[in-house]
Amino acid sequence: MKQMLEYVHGDSVIHRLNPLVKLLWAFLTCIACFISSNHLFLLGVLLSTVVVAASGSVLARAKGVYKALFILGFLLMLFQLLFTPYGRVYFYILPGVPVTDQGLSFSLLLMLRMMAALSPLSLMLMLTPMNELLTAMTHTLRIPYRYAFVVVTALRFIPTFSREMDQIMQAQRSRGHETDTRNPFKKVKVILPMCIPLLISSVRRIETMAISLETRGFNTGPRSCRKKLGFTRFDALAIIIVMAVLLLSIIIG
Amino acid sequence: MIRFNNVSFAYEGSEELAVRNINLHIDKGEFVGIIGPSGAGKSTLVSLINGVIPHFHRGDYYGEVLVCGKDTLESTCGEISRHVGSVFQDPEAQMVTTVVEDEIAFGLENFNVPAGEIEKRITESLKMVGIEHLRHRGTAALSGGQKQRVTIAAAIALRPEILVLDEPTSELDPQGSRQVFQTLKRLNQEYGMTILIVEQKVMLLSEFCSRLMVMEKGQIILDGPVRQVLEHHDKLLELGINCPRVVTLTKLLKDASLYDGDIPVDVDEAEQVVRKILEGAYDQHTAFDLSLR
Ligand SMILES: Nc1ncnc2c1ncn2[C@@H]1O[C@H](COP(=O)(O)OP(=O)(O)O)[C@@H](O)[C@H]1O
Ligand SMILES: [Mg+2]
């Protein structure tokens, strides 16, 4: 989880794009994927995200994202496949539960859509430094600094919490609680009692963080900004491409 | 620079005073070490200086704390932070951002330091604590010691008049801790930065600080120039503070009435002392006597 949202430092063309352009890319691609119901279009979008990941040299990290989305998509696909009774029946998987051509087509569409629509969000976070995102939100979008800060900081806590969760899980295990189980019901039963220590420790953490903020002059007056965000030819080009993709999704439907 | 007038404080919900009747005066440019057993009130004392008490922790507060002439009760934590830089015990929890250089820049941006100057300060402070190579790294994947260095770099980048550090080297190896102290010494000498450091490693304190305070049960029981405080060898040992070996040696020499000067604070000085004693001993033909002891 933490690996999928964390920034990876680099100096590629994608890294140097204006953060708002990347944000726009992630959102419009997502929308385009929901507008279109064309298998080939979605596959094309998915491949284009792979190209983006490769040019940002985060392909290795992105592999994990695709894998997770694939598993999620596959489950959805199975569901869809088994509950689409219309169309030409290929065969019966159980008595009364047919596998049809439409079911197959629908479920495939769902999976492609899932992967193509969500991977850009994760890639955007991998390829955009938080502080640039913050600058873009406050300076260009004019979101008040404290609100923009809250959004960005929520992301900062993900690795902390996931590590904490691991620690608590280990502590439980050393006390003889079984934590490795594939049974989803058991898993919930295992995880629930851990939420309380996690909650307590996060409250404490957030308090320390608040102290750290105040003692470093948070929100005490006008703020300077380390990086000026530029707008280059590449940004313009990227916007044109993104718009074209959106238009295409509307045209082919 | 810092003045405590009869300060006592008890945390909300606790009957006991965490610090009691503290009277204290710290001048500009002092380098003060604070040592004492766990629960002695060291962190509480530090929180009183940077305004975390009374602005974050509630409780019963008596007396007054003046920092740069102003009562901390009457200014906000943010105002105090313009004079006082802080490094807290838990390095992970005090990190605000996800990338090392952003962490250093955070305070500088808050204080409206111009962009060019920020770059300069980032480079400089990372270099000072020896982690230039971590500049673009994510903070989540750093080791405890590396995180501590980052938090120290973030504090010194602000060049505060006063810097308070609460056990900032607890996760660093001896060499790393030493480097931190050397950096602090430099800041102390070059910028006249007033430094207050809570630390368990007595050897480093005695080598680098000009003044040492020993706390026990909420009180400052010893306070003075390092050498003078180290004279109270028995008291320190009673508190579980292991004196530097050179101090122990001097103590033995003194008990045997062989030496009666200042306490040496490092090995070189101790060697001189021992040499002198030995020379003296041979001069007076009492070498035999010495070996008997
Ligand atoms: N946030 C808090 N709430 C209640 N009591 C506290 C809190 N922090 C410290 N104390 C108590 O105050 C006393 C002094 O603690 P502290 O200043 O942290 O000591 P030290 O840093 O020397 O280990 C201890 O008895 C401790 O239990
Ligand atoms: Mg403490």
TrEMBL record, chain A:
<feature type="transmembrane region" description="Helical">
    <location>
        <begin position="23"/>
        <end position="53"/>
    </location>
</feature>
<feature type="transmembrane region" description="Helical">
    <location>
        <begin position="234"/>
        <end position="252"/>
    </location>
</feature>
<dbReference type="InterPro" id="IPR003339">
    <property type="entry name" value="ABC/ECF_trnsptr_transmembrane"/>
</dbReference>
<dbReference type="InterPro" id="IPR051611">
    <property type="entry name" value="ECF_transporter_component"/>
</dbReference>
<keyword id="KW-1003">Cell membrane</keyword>
<feature type="transmembrane region" description="Helical">
    <location>
        <begin position="65"/>
        <end position="83"/>
    </location>
</feature>
<protein>
    <submittedName>
        <fullName>Energy-coupling factor transport system permease protein</fullName>
    </submittedName>
</protein>
<keyword id="KW-0812">Transmembrane</keyword>
<dbReference type="Pfam" id="PF02361">
    <property type="entry name" value="CbiQ"/>
</dbReference>
<keyword id="KW-0472">Membrane</keyword>
<keyword id="KW-1133">Transmembrane helix</keyword>
<feature type="transmembrane region" description="Helical">
    <location>
        <begin position="103"/>
        <end position="127"/>
    </location>
</feature>
<dbReference type="GO" id="GO:0005886">
    <property type="term" value="C:plasma membrane"/>
</dbReference>
TrEMBL record, chain B:
<dbReference type="InterPro" id="IPR003593">
    <property type="entry name" value="AAA+_ATPase"/>
</dbReference>
<comment type="similarity">
    <text>Belongs to the ABC transporter superfamily.</text>
</comment>
<keyword id="KW-0547">Nucleotide-binding</keyword>
<dbReference type="GO" id="GO:0016887">
    <property type="term" value="F:ATP hydrolysis activity"/>
</dbReference>
<protein>
    <submittedName>
        <fullName>Energy-coupling factor transport system ATP-binding protein</fullName>
    </submittedName>
</protein>
<keyword id="KW-1003">Cell membrane</keyword>
<keyword id="KW-0067">ATP-binding</keyword>
<dbReference type="InterPro" id="IPR050095">
    <property type="entry name" value="ECF_ABC_transporter_ATP-bd"/>
</dbReference>
<dbReference type="Pfam" id="PF00005">
    <property type="entry name" value="ABC_tran"/>
</dbReference>
<dbReference type="InterPro" id="IPR003439">
    <property type="entry name" value="ABC_transporter-like_ATP-bd"/>
</dbReference>
<dbReference type="GO" id="GO:0042626">
    <property type="term" value="F:ATPase-coupled transmembrane transporter activity"/>
</dbReference>
<keyword id="KW-1278">Translocase</keyword>
<dbReference type="InterPro" id="IPR017871">
    <property type="entry name" value="ABC_transporter-like_CS"/>
</dbReference>
<dbReference type="GO" id="GO:0043190">
    <property type="term" value="C:ATP-binding cassette (ABC) transporter complex"/>
</dbReference>
<dbReference type="InterPro" id="IPR015856">
    <property type="entry name" value="ABC_transpr_CbiO/EcfA_su"/>
</dbReference>
<dbReference type="GO" id="GO:0005524">
    <property type="term" value="F:ATP binding"/>
</dbReference>
<keyword id="KW-0472">Membrane</keyword>
<keyword id="KW-0813">Transport</keyword>
<feature type="domain" description="ABC transporter">
    <location>
        <begin position="2"/>
        <end position="242"/>
    </location>
</feature>
<dbReference type="InterPro" id="IPR027417">
    <property type="entry name" value="P-loop_NTPase"/>
</dbReference>
